[in-house]
Q: What sequence folds into this?
């Protein structure tokens, strides 16, 4: 069964949130995970595409925006049909993607706005009502 981790942001802004997502992605990649970042739109996908190259001077995260050529360990997409072969989903959208159960692990976040927090509560209830293993991590 898919494991779901919720990262609760107790304070911060959009920039600190985005940089945390990049650090989390880098950590998961270094542990050998293949990652699909599910973004709500092309603008967010492009922002993470740029940020994954620049969020840290010494970082290198091989990634590409879907559709892409070749085999990359981190894909960024907005569609409902992610490429096969990924084991970690980082969901940056407001709802639970239909395809979430294809992944061994799902990362959900509360974001930083009140609206994002309410949407995260709804997603948490969705997983909880269906019996998924939930872990909560507070980020300060």
A:
């Amino acid at each position: 069964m898919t494991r779901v981790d919720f990262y609760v942001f107790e304070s911060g802004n959009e920039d600190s949130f985005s940089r945390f997502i990049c650090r989390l992605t880098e950590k998961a990649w270094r542990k050998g995970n293949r990652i699909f970042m599910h973004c709500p739109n092309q603008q967010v996908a492009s922002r993470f595409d740029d940020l994954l190259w620049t969020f840290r001077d010494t970082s290198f995260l091989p990634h590409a925006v879907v559709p892409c050529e070749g085999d990359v360990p981190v894909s960024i997409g907005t569609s409902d049909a992610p490429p096969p072969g990924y084991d970690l989903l980082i969901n940056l959208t407001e709802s639970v993607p239909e395809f979430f159960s294809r992944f061994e692990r799902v990362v959900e976040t509360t974001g930083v706005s009140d609206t994002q927090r309410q949407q995260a509560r709804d997603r948490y209830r969705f997983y909880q009502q269906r019996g998924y293993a939930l872990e909560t991590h507070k980020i300060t």
